[in-house]
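Format notes (please read before filing issues)

Several people have asked whether sequences and structure tokens are stored in separate files. They are not. Every record keeps both together, in the order shown below: the sequence lines, then the token lines. Line labels are part of the format and must not be stripped during preprocessing.
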Amino acid sequence: MLISYASVEVEYRFEVHKTAINAARSSSVSHIFYSSLAFAGNLSPTSVASVMGTHLLTEQYLSSLPAQGPATYTAIREGLYSEPFPVYTAWFDIHNPVEEITTPHSGDGPGIRWAKTDELGEATAKMIVSYVQSSGDFLWLNKAVLLSGPQVLSLKETADILGRVTRKDVRIKEISAIEYAELPFKDKYWYRGVNLLNDYTLCWEAFRRRETAVVSPLLGEILGKEPGDFETTVRGLLH
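Then the structure lines:
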């Protein structure tokens, strides 16, 4: 199982992934599962979101493996993850809530199908078990698959849920991407003297393009139950 390397540099991050993949092949690993991210719509090979860049490069490299030898792969696009929702809601804190979420987005239109992290992990584990128990007929061999939440919520609907959970009247305030990149939490995105929040604002452009608004039934099918909804997950974070 290749877990995505945590870095904000697309090319460097990809090279680390590539090195790990090549090392696995050299060690006679026959199949590689890769934890990708669920931007890029319905398994599209392109995305406007900078955070998806390394994942797409890694998926592309994995897809070349079968032609190079016996190694096979499964790329699992997961999310978007429910628990780290603050990343997309101006670092909204449910334990210290505010009434206004400033984002480079109006809150209307296409949204996000949130998915619970532990359920994504459980489904991934079950896929690995399925591969081990298969006899050459693994369903997701040499494929990218999408594990998504059960419902698409706009950013406004997401804010409404945060308001219900925290008993606040929470609203979205749209600002420009340039203004967003200068908000106080920009320090979280500084890397080698560069404010990477400028690039990160492309996530909201991806939302506008419906990149995170595709619902796949696969997560529920693998779990054998309806995946947890966003509001229930957020309420659980309060305790």
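For reference, the curators noted about this record: The first helix runs from residue 10 to 26. The chain has one domain: 10-237.
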